[in-house]
Design a protein that fits this description.
- This protein is α/β, with parallel strands linked by helices.
- It has 7 helices and 9 strands, in the order αββββααββαβαβαβα.
- The chain has a single domain, classed as Rossmann fold, CATH 3.40.50.
- The protein is 31% helix and 24% strand.
- Hypoxanthine (HPA) binds next to β5, β8 and β9.
């Protein structure tokens, strides 16, 4: 039995057999939603191989249950490339999600904005991304499946549904290109200017390796950033992790409303 089969069996024992309709990965300062799910919470400590509590602002547990009548699996904590140097740090949790029979994944993150019309507190859905923050998480994968097409990595159908939910809730939802930087240091102003020239609209330290892994596993994906700050050099405010955690809840409340509506309208 593979590790993901074993963990999936353990999770089914605790949370029931039914496959989650959606997986949801929560970013820094966005963990409130996990507490809204009616279901079973399993701390990552009880799921061998799942990431350890690394970054404050993340609650390391998997919650499986109902939100707006839809069965979902919520990953409260994510592993980042910068914690271990391993871009595939989220591979096992995503493999387990796929093994549970889940077919769709929505990722959230906190990000810095490169666009004046996307100020702190707003939401940006990823229309595409630039994966220059580190090595590809599929390096070393032996199967031919490693040659994953990334053309519609951000699923058009899911994005249409998320746009519709945002409109129905009256929540402005920007859309743009997310540039993956490795972190953990923030970007320099020159790196932010370079990212803008390369076509990015937001920058962050997560999500992109997960999208690549999830596409490899056959999951349809969409991701939304909560903008917590302008990119380095674009505003007077100092950029810090404390600031990210403090600002994220402003956008997170809107994101929660949007996601609830999205699920309700399925
Ligand atoms: N850069 C990278 N990651 C981030 C930022 C940023 O400005 N804000 C929140 N996460």
């Amino acid at each position: 039995m593979s590790k993901s089969d074993e963990l999936a069996a353990l999770i089914r024992d605790r949370a029931g057999e039914a496959a989650p309709e959606y997986g949801l990965v929560l970013g820094s300062g966005l963990s409130h939603l996990a507490g809204q799910v009616e279901g079973v919470a399993i701390p990552y400590d009880e799921l061998p191989g799942f990431p350890h509590a690394g970054v404050s602002g993340h609650v390391p547990q998997l919650v499986i249950g109902q939100l707006e009548g839809v069965r979902i699996a919520v990953f409260g904590g994510r592993a980042h490339y910068y914690e271990s140097g391993r871009p595939d740090a989220m591979r096992l949790p995503l493999e387990v999600l796929a093994t549970l029979g889940c077919k769709r994944l929505i990722l959230t993150n906190a990000a810095g904005s490169l666009r004046e019309d996307l100020p702190p507190g707003t939401l940006m859905m990823l229309g595409d991304h630039i994966a220059l923050g580190g090595p590809n998480p599929l390096i070393g994968e032996p199967s031919e499946a490693r040659f994953v097409p990334m053309t519609d990595a951000h699923d058009p159908g899911l994005r249409t549904g998320l746009r519709r939910a945002a409109r129905a809730e009256g929540i402005p939802l920007g859309e743009g290109v997310y540039f993956w930087f490795s972190g953990p240091s923030f970007e320099t102003p020159a790196e932010i200017r370079a990212a803008r020239i390369m076509g990015a609209d937001a920058v962050g330290m997560s999500t992109v390796p997960e999208i690549i892994l999830a596409r490899f596993l056959g999951l349809r994906c969409a991701a939304i950033s909560v903008i917590t700050n302008m990119g380095a050099g674009m505003a007077d405010e100092a950029i810090s992790h404390e600031h990210t955690k403090a600002t994220a809840p402003i956008g997170a409340a809107k994101l929660e409303r949007l996601l609830r509506r999205f699920l309700r309208d399925q």
